[in-house]
Predict the 3D structure of the following.
Amino acid sequence: MKALKMLALLGMLVGLVSLTSLNFSDEIDYSSLGIHWNGGEVRAVEMIAAHLAEKNALIPDEELHEVAKTMYDASRSYDVDYRLVLAVMDAESNFRHNVVSEAGAIGIMQVKPIVAREFSDEVGIPYGRDVLHCPHANVRFGVYYLSWLSRHYDNDYAVLYAYNVGYTRARQNMQRNSEPKTGYTRKVMEEYERNRSRLPGV
């Protein structure tokens, strides 16, 4: 009987030591996204969420961290610097997910329905009338569009200009100027530089 008690006590001590040695921030379960995060990635997501909160993003508190995970995952999947994505959000919507522009662009990344329809298969999200009002879908479409534009233009200013005015119009307007430095592109690039100084790279 004494031996059993000793074994039980030893088991409790081993369990306690194991628990106290864990770094819980590295053990968060992100498997719902189908990916496994390491410690650095978890910290990056937490910093994105903090950045969104600091910018007073109009996203419900319970959704904020999930949107940050979606943005980080989309940025990594489509090879777009998430710090640039944050800068685009700042310029496009001031982090408001429920805004619709006069030109019909929707949500936190101001994605137009024609873009969502065009890239629905590539993004893996079926197009529907209200799909861009979901912050998660809006972010994935916006980041994919940035990635797609970066395959057609070889500098950030051109990519941002095309994101802002549309691919067709940008192609027409940039025949003489391959690096358009407009008020919009300058604003985004300035914010991007600030984000690069404050947030870790991937």
About this structure: DSSP finds nine helices and no strands in the chain.
